Amino acid sequence: MPPSPSADVLRGTLDLLILKTLSPQxxxxxxxxxxxxxxxxxxxxxxxxxxxxxxxxxxxKGWVESDWRVTEQNRRAKYYELTGAGRRALGEExxxxxxxxxxxxxxxxxx
Amino acid sequence: MAEALAHATxxxxxxxxxxxxxxxxxxxxxxxxxxxxxxxGLAPDEAARRARMAFGTVDRFRGEVHxxxxxAWLATLGRDLRYAVRGMGHRPGFVLAILLTLxxxxxxxxxxxxxxxxxxxxxxxxxxxxxxxxxxxTNPEFGWTDAQAAxxxxxxxxxxxRAFEDVGAYLEFENRATYVQDGEPHxxxxxxxxxxxxxxxxxxxxxxxGFRWEETWRGASNVAVLSHAxxxxxxxxxxAIIGRSVRFGDTMVEIVGVMPRGFAFPFGGTDLWxxxxxxxxxxxxxxxxxxxxxxxxxxxxxxxxxAQADAAFQVEVARLRQEFPETNRVMGAGMMPLRGFxxxxxxxxxxxxxxxxxxxxxxxxxxxxxxxxxxxLGRQHEIALRSALGAGRARIVSMLLIEHAVLALLGAAxxxxxxxxxxxxxxxxxxxxxxxxxxxxDSRVGLFALVAAVGCALSFSAAPVLLALRQGRDAQLQGSExxxxxxxxxARLIGGLVALEVALALVLVVGAGLMAKTALRLRRVDVGFxxxxxxxxxxxxxxxRYPALPQVTAFYDRLLAELEARPGIVRAGTVANLPLTxxxxxSQFQAEGWxxxxxxxxxxxxxxxxxxxxALGTPLVRGRHLAPSDRADAPPAVVIxxxxxxxxxxxxxxxxxxxxxxxxxxxxSTWREIVGIxxxxxxxxxxxxxxxxxxxxxxQDVGRNMWVVLRTDQTPMSVLPSVREVLRALDPLLPxxxxxxxxxxxxxxxxxxxxxxxxxxxxxxLAVVLAAVGAYAVAAQSxxxxxxxxxxxxxxxxSSGDVLRLVLIRGVAFVALGLAAGLALTLVATRALxxxxxxxxxxxxxxxxxxxALLLVVGVVACWIPARWATRLDPVRAxxxx
Lengths: 111, 882
Known about the structure:
- The complex is a heterodimer of chains A (111) and B (882).
- By secondary structure, chain A is of the alpha+beta class.
- Chain A has a single domain (5-110), classed as Arc Repressor Mutant, subunit A.
- Chain A is built from four helices and three strands.
- In chain A, strands 1-3-2 form a three-stranded antiparallel beta sheet.
- In chain A, strand 2 and strand 3 (76-82) form a beta hairpin.
- In chain B, helix 2 (19-39) crosses helix 15, helix 14 (347-378) packs parallel to helix 17 (443-474) and helix 14 runs antiparallel to helix 18.
- At the A-B interface, helix 2, helix 3 and strand 3 of A face helix 2 and helix 4 of B.
């Protein structure tokens, strides 16, 4: 059964957003969620829960690495970090996304 | 394609996320999110609700992705296995408790399985063993049910019963032969057999040949067959031994064969087989049909059923009754399959222990189920998270099953080791297991352990799996508020398991208690002598150097005198058979002045002397003891026991009466005067009443095989070196056959009871511990589940006594329920013990009440510990705690 396109698009987008969020520094899951909410001004309504399967998927692809560390409040949390492959993938995905957006825009403008 | 494959297999190689980690991660997330809302000014409850809402319904693609992949199943299995193993490291106490429980209970089951299989099912190491039957004689007058047979009868059966292909026989008591090697005498165990013995068993010698039928009879030369062990140890595995003549004791014997390794029938440790060596003219003698001292073994003719053979057999037995009324008037006979005969006294104790082990295993499963259930309750949140994250029910169930299967398999592996050690330590020999069978640790035993492990895993997974499924259905991530109904259901499940454990424990401990009472009673029985500090040494004086009574008497007189002169030895005497080792020889007798048709049947008799009675401390009741003056030149004197006096001379004074060991006295009868009455000595076991018995003076009848008994004033074994020194000085070629203390003899007479007692006590002890853990678990769960309620009660001013009661009542109620159910079970189950009990009924109220009280106390204590925690709860924290 092929996944529904919307889920697929969402999934791809979410992956990209996570990669981008992680690019400056390693973060734990909750921090990623907070950051995404801030940046999108809470316009992007995704369940925070979707974050974790996505992180797991990225880790399986080898784009991020995880590591248990201690937070400033002295709590154990799992931090995620981009790998070299992840950085390359971010660049590639970003270019693809831009191509895609440009293409969609082109179509929208011409028709 | 290649990429797809790589994608599919990756999780096998890199299971980055374990579910437990994910659970912790999400818990952290929710906590942070809740804290954020609290900082924003929300009430904690509302903050938590909002945090959960923000987390949202988790989409299920993670689960889909995993479960749909071709190789995902393997990946999942691998991950679950790893998770199971890793998880064990995190909970060593829990895992240790379960492994120990399983190892001991599966170990006990495996040991019993291996034992029962060896006894009842493993093929006997004989060719066509199903055609082999033991024959025995019966005599209602003497109370014989499976007696040894008279050789003349056996020879007639062999010749007349066509349904038997062949009939042979062996002597049930071991003969001894002395073999002198480098000046050192060795005593060999000899089995006396008929010439067709090996052929009937289908046993082929490793070297040389077996016996021929003609060799049953005394001939020009003596022949013998060596055991493999003796051939190796004494004759250095020399193949040239065949055909060589070797001196055993007084006679030169030609070795004609060597049996293969492991052949040890009729006794374990047989060194040498020799033919019966009967004189051909014996066959016509009356004694040959009157003395019952051989064990006949028959091989059925091909194609004949046991029933057909028995019918044909009975015809000939009846015919012999008519032909030889003097000896066979009331003699009957029967047959029994060889295996059934060998294990006839073991069936009851082994079945009892097998039953006990089954109960123990069930109890262990209940206990592990309980522990697993408790842990599953502790992991409710984790399981809820998993289902929330899209783990299918099948995944959750398989995860639990895998975890339990790993535990059960480890437990079973340890159990096999436990069984192996136990069987070697306890020794199969405790049961007196016949030499023909041996315990094998083979693939069947392994298979049994595997089946037991799988059975255990399934049985103790049932409850946690049900719990998990229920949670999967109704918990989701809606938080960990335990539904009141669900909590009650869980508590009832745990309570029910505890009740089951208590009931089973009651059965086992009552069984152990009854056996303990039996052992105590047996130990207290007055057996007619004092066994402590007495050493007994068996000697056989050969006819070559001690041809007649005067030499034998002189030897023993001197031996006893020199022994008594040694330090540590207080009194020395001799007797033909030790008490408590079986009935020994029996006879009929006639008393002077009795009418011709009156006779005493089946009385026991032994040779002894004054020293024997004094060394053992058997008191004289009336008259006088046997005295040193009762010698060959004096009129034969005998001493009788109290039972003899009561049975045959109830209203008259037996002292001064004369008896002869003949049913009908003749001119040749030897008349012996009764000079005294001694206290009864138990002859077979403390549980069996003494039989009528006569003691002759060893100085008036030749006894070549005698036990020298020594009362010491120290540890009896410590005088053994003195005994050896004295013997060496008197006759360096005379070996000591057997050394035993009378305490050992006494203990051995209760070996069956003691073995059953020991094992039941071990099982019972384990059962009590398991039941205590169960009761503890139920109370602990009750405290955990009602923490908030208890906190409220304490906050509202409930005293610690109130709280204690609240928790205790719940736990103790289930223990009491178990006791009630166990009582009913016990009354049925302990009936199996009836045949082993002595001086106590299987429904002994004292024992049952004491054990029930013990279990109740254990239950209360086990519940009391968690109840104490409850009283110490800080109400503020308890209320905050979710």
